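Memo to structure team: turn this sequence into structure tokens by end of day. - J.P.
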Amino acid sequence: MFRTMKVSLAALAAGSLMTSAVLAGDLVINFDDLNPGPKQGFDDAVAQFKAENPDINVIVNNNDREAHKTAIRNFLTADAPDVTSWYPGNRMAPFVDAGLFIPVDDVWADNGFNEDLAAIKATMSRDGKIWGVPYSYYQWGVYYRKDIFDLLKLEEPQTWDELLAACGTMKENGVTPFTIGTKFLWTAAGVFDYLNLRTNGYEVHNDLTAGKIKYTDPRIVKTFENWKVLIDECGWVDNHASMSWQDAIAPFANGDAAMYVMGNFSVDGYKNAGLTDDQIDFMPFPTIDPNVPLAEEAPADAFFIPTNAKNKEDAKKFLAFVARPDVQTKWNKTIGQLPINAKADISEDKFIQEGFALLNSATGIAQFYDRDAPAAMAKAGMEGFQEFMLDTSKMMAILERLDGVQDEVYK
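Reply from structure team:
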């Protein structure tokens, strides 16, 4: 009888182990931001997910963004994680088209995301399917020194003419209108995008980055002509090509420059440089053509499931988790950005509040030039943008060169 009991106990133990093996699974997540705020937000979310799902063994690989961009195609094909961070819009398109991501329409349908994430659904969609789940986005626009504006008796410019007039007043008083650091080229792309969105609108932005219209198209030429006006009548700080976006905060903080076309992630930099909420404020990029509806720049961050993932079931659980309103509320409060889930709570931070109002009123949300354009086109385009800012006489030569790059990239 004792031997029979031992066999029974052994069988029970074996069955228990098999059940445990079925329940327990490794979930490998690749993330792409080592900066303190974003890393903390991600780490906190993973800790909460693990607490809610103790049967899932979460393995995290975190890398910086540039290294992640370089490595992603290799790891998607060679040793895919179960979940990876990446970008919506055209930046996800090559991986969707190559069959390296799976559609997650079921995650959206099962969790009510078609309604709660409606603002970003089009950007997450391709070929009639939805390919990932976003967790955050943030507005771009014009950050400005409110104390300098008050001193010069300037109001927020609403129109192109008002902006140019305000620039004139600044220059008369020894203040450079704009700061920027174009050492890392995407900052110039932000200026180009807003000029193009305000000159031509959202559809032209999308058509250009999709390779449907040329850089020498009269509409894009007009964008560059407006850019030349902004350079000539407003202007940027000297030596911007040798400065990072962080370096460009210094002339903004010391009062040498009054405005910065930038994303909301920069606010911490202003505060770390000694500026207070009373000294800085935010405004939309002014209207250029009143007949062009106002679209905005709001890059989103998202998670995707690779086709070669080994644990797709738990990967879908994680995607459903990161888009929950409570999770997005907490995560975005930590990183100082905007939740995408419409049921999430918005931080009381004034810049978050202004960004939320801005994006809710937008007629379209662009992801950003270097996310909406293929990588090779974005690199060449941003090099051209910086070159133009340094020498506007090269405009047509730059645009013709970009046409040539476009012919190769979009074959």
